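call fold(seq) -> tokens
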Amino acid sequence: MHYTLNVNKCITFALLLCLPTFAQVSNLDVKSTLDGTMQPNYFVAAEGDAPRPLLVSLHSWSNGFNTDTGDGMRSWERAAKARNWHLLQPHFRGPNKTPEGCGSELARQDILDAVDAVVSQHKVDPSRIYLAGASGGGHMAMVMAGHAPERWTAVSAWVGISDLAAWYRECKESDHRYWEHLDTAIGGAPGTSDEIDAAYTYRSPIHHLAKAKDVPLDISVGIHDGHSGSVPIHHSLDAFNVIAKARGDAEISAVEIERLSKREGLKENLPLDPAYGRGLHLQQQSGPCRITVFEGGHEGLPETACVFLGTHIKQIENPTE
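ret:
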């Protein structure tokens, strides 16, 4: 008996085995309630008929929902699948190099519109709507935590930019060309005009995070970011301090921020934290907010994020029957 091996079919079958197997995968177009344009999103429905948590995963700085196709975004998808959560990855106007992107009013509303669309069309547990992102997604996660704190059960922000004006200067000094994106998105360098400075303030989460002081917000950053990566760790530490100050809690001192930023006096052979699987150089709490400096670089750890997110359930005052 002879068999003919169809190589192309075998390759296709092998690739299909590697793909997540959710009940429904789709591109979800949602009409913006601000400018009426149709905005794309990637949505993966959880299995079953019971209401399930929703994970809103935000793309990185230079990508959109359809171009951030590396393992970074897929790892968020796998983490959601492992828990049978719905997954939503909004486009929010794509890469952060246009006036419509980069924390704009339009980009913010796109995320809220997409969440509203998913909640209206699918069985979502309203007490468990989670938000997360890394790098540019970490920036936008913090933006949204301050912009609409009432919408999120918990938020996880990794290696995010908290102060765009400071980052503009840092990128110029370190030859990271993200300052060019900010030039295009905001209209110029910080200090160019009062209007441009106001735009930097509006799009920078550090100026609004005090409104998120009661949100379970997990801010994480790798100790080597800013050296091997593009976002100095003070952005995460400064963001935490805004919340700590708003709550009247102890802030991370300027001396400690400088020490960590310069990687001075770091302990070696740190014990591995069970949640992070890494050594921790600092972990501090302020109410429901937590800051962690872990052994690592410019990266997000979706499994670790989802462990944090999944421990939080919001009290819903008037649940819909």
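The first helix runs from residue 7 to 18.
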